Amino acid sequence: MKKGIVAIIPVKGNSERVPQKNIRKFHDTSLLELKIKQIKLAKGFSQVVVSSEDDEVLKIASKHGVSAHKRDPYYSTGSVPMSEVYSHLASVVEYDTIAWINVTNPLVGTNIYEDAIATYNSLELNKYDCLMSVYELKEYVFYNEKPVNFKPYPWPRSQDLKGLSVPSFAINIVKSSDLKERGTLVGNSPYFFYIDPTLSTDIDEQVDFEFCEFLYKKSLEK
Questions:
Q1: Helix axes 31-41, 110-121, angle to 10 degrees
Q2: What's the whole-number mean pLDDT along residues 117-139?
Q3: CA 45 to chain CA mean position, Å
Q4: Cα angle at 1 between 100 and 130, to 5 degrees?
Q5: Backbone phi and psi for residue 120, each to the nearest 5 degrees, phi listed first
Q6: Percentage helix, strand, coil for the chain under 3-state DSSP, each rounded to 5
Q7: Given this model, what pLDDT does residue 221 score?
Q8: Pick from 89, 108, 109, 106: which is nearest to 214 by CA?
Q9: What separation in angstroms does the CA of 34 have from each of 40, 128, 208?
Q10: Cα→Cα distances 49→32, 65, 106, 144, 154, Å
């Protein structure tokens, strides 16, 4: 297996909550085309692979000069556990390290990916076994009707809350062998790579799509 980091972009041809969100118009581009452009500009990736069951998605990947992996449709169904998808794709790559990157975080750009790669390459591998992108959540949180990150007496100011780390899955970097064996992007000792909460926004619903599209458009006007 070659030494290097392969960027895997998993893309479904369709989605349930936002139809064709990955390839439909997103201001002057699409989520897929934008993500390919962002990653191609980033230094540190040995290869970029778009994996999909959809021929149109794969055509877009080839058009933009990255590798296209035709995925068995089974691994794009809503019923298959993600652990199977992770293990399957880890078994077909040529490089020893995988950067799993979703197209649904359009506000995460080239500079963040380069920072993530540089951070991963500087990690003490005997201390950390992967890099996981997260954002800090500073909200009043209860679980089973009990406060999680604060003491209710006296009631704290919001700025004094203990932040919770929430996985954003904008980028996760992990050894290919670990991903294949464990079927998870989160290792036993992950390094938390913090990204701004707004930039971390993941498009899950139509309102997320419109919000990110608005911010992306505004960023082009600067």
A1: 50
A2: 94
A3: 15
A4: 35
A5: -60, -45
A6: 30, 25, 45
A7: 83
A8: 106
A9: 10, 31, 16
A10: 12, 10, 17, 42, 52
Query: What's the pLDDT at 150?
Result: 94
Segment 79-101 shows an average pLDDT of: 94
- What's the token pair of residue 154? 């006296």
pLDDT digits (tens, 9 = 90+) for 159-191: 999 999 999 999 999 999 999 999 999 989 999
Confirm if 149 and 158 have CB atoms less than 8 A apart: no
- pLDDT for the residue 1: 84
Residue 98's H or E segment, with its range, is: strand 95-101
Round to whole Å and give the CA distance between 179 and 113: 20
Q: How many CB atoms lie within 10 A of CB 38?
A: 19
Structure tokens at 89: 């794709």
Q: What phi and psi, each to the nearest 5 degrees, are found at residue 105?
A: -120, 70
Cβ partners under 8 Å of residue 209, min gap 6? 18, 21, 26, 203
Coil/strand/helix, residue 17: coil
One-letter amino acid for residue 138 of the chain: K
Residue-wise pLDDT for 132-154, tens only, equals 999 999 999 999 999 999 999 99
Reference 45, options 86, 107, 103, 97; nearest CA is: 97
Q: What's the one-letter identity of residue 75?
A: Y
CA 87, 93, 99, 105 dihedral sign is negative
Could you tell me if 183 and 84 are in contact, meaning their C-beta atoms sit under 8 angstroms apart? yes
The reply to whether omega before 154 is within 30° of 0 (cis) is yes
Q: Which residue has the tokens 């608005």?
A: 214
The structure tokens 């794009």 sit at 76
